[in-house]
């Protein structure tokens, strides 16, 4: 049997001393074996996933609310909680997105303290993936990689291509061939090598594992996954800071691999551990599309395993049929008295429209799924109206316009004359505009 390697305290001779002492090892989430801080993601002993281990005693002495607030207006204000060893991190302005206090959506749902964490405006590519990629590529550069890659349902490819271009790294990204045009163009503009694979995400991911092994590239969500996934913690850190250094009562977030869900939880735990916030039990609820809901099914059936499924939903950005962190997401939902629900494609479209018409936020299908599940949980009495609830919107609707085409009406076509406008205005006040396919005046 292969023996676990001793944990390394540094990755190279030029490491920043403060973060070198904070970063301890890669540790297996299942058996606890520790490994050097290299490009590795699977335990050699039990094949469990690896995650970064920190020295929280050193963190307590290194950070405070004041030092964080004095940091850059990006995810790197939390750099001591992130797995980068030097000051040479990649900062493209990612993070510190708005935490919007909802009024109209809250009233529509009957909630009193609803907040929207809006990563639809995250930089540079309008999704939360910019967070994880900034961290992964910063670490990739420290480890000496010159070519970076990913397996993606769209948003991750956009982020990897964009941030690699900024960092001067060679980039090759892999996507399912049937992705939305906005996401394909949103990668090609940065001039990566883009591989459109005939198959679903899980097939893409399997191919990428083979490529990573044969070419030695840095795959952000494969061999760099322990570092990459830590970037999602910043969605927890920011919410706590934006709420006045307090934790919410309940969060609702989308579930794809389950990693985002688990890392928001870890972020809250870390802030509590080092004394930045007062600890409390935050309820965690997750959202999936019915056409790809293996985590919701496991939660509903009280199973201790995830049964892979073949995705069939418009919510392509969260359509992962064999989620790597699915079981951990189920465990968190259970132990926090949360829930995991799924909604159908029609409800997802209504969720997109509901958020847009109440709060002026245009989200993609993952956000539509999350809002639809939020609504479903409220209607089922599973969210207390007085809870401070945060719903996470993780991507921008401009990337998935096909999903709502035909469901939001058509423009009123008029002549460039006042009387033509007046007739159209009168009709618009008496007809349900959503039923119009085209109006010619």
TrEMBL record:
Example GO molecular function: threonine deaminase activity
Known cofactor(s): pyridoxal 5'-phosphate
Modification type N6-(pyridoxal phosphate)lysine: residues: 129
Tryptophan synthase beta chain-like PALP domain segment(s): 93-395
EC number in record: 4.2.3.1
InterPro entries per UniProt: Ser/Thr_Dehydratase, Thr_synthase-like, TrpB-like_PALP, TrpB-like_PALP_sf
Domain of life: Bacteria
Keyword entries, A-Z: Lyase, Pyridoxal phosphate
Name of one Pfam family that matches: PALP
Biological-process GO terms, alphabetical: isoleucine biosynthetic process; L-serine catabolic process; L-threonine catabolic process; threonine biosynthetic process
Family stated for the protein in its record: Belongs to the threonine synthase family.
PANTHER family according to UniProt: L-THREONINE DEHYDRATASE CATABOLIC TDCB, THREONINE DEHYDRATASE, MITOCHONDRIAL-RELATED
The protein's name in its UniProt record: Threonine synthase
Taxonomy of the source species: Bacteria, Bacillati, Cyanobacteriota, Cyanophyceae, Nostocales
